[in-house]
Amino acid sequence: MGAGYDIGEMHQEINKVLSDNVAGRDKAAISYVMESPDGRWFVARLLENCHIDSALGLLRSDGSMVMDTNAMLVQEGERRVGLVIKENILSMGDGLSLYHQMESESKAYNDQQEEIKRSIVSRYMKAEE
Fold this sequence. Notes:
Elements: H1 7-34, H2 37-49, E1 58-59, E2 65-66, H3 69-90, H4 95-128
Helix pairs in contact: 2-3, 2-4, 3-4
């Protein structure tokens, strides 16, 4: 090997070029996914499972939270993954718009699910009368 180049500098350049390549592929992939309703559905469910908008801890059946350190550490790792995905979406040119569209579609679906539950509960309540 010649002494005409800095090996550290060479490794930095390699890492930057490869990292930029991966980042470009990530952006293209998340853009592709977010362009379709099924893709937005998948991402919304993924972010929900990554605890993006929920408190950390174990939820008891009575609705109270248990502060379990191991569970919280796992959930924090899952949250980090969700935050990276969210960051990739929001860094797209139309990412904010697509993110809001995903949230709106998810809310509409959740509202529909709640209405189905209410309907079933109501039917059972009427049957007991």
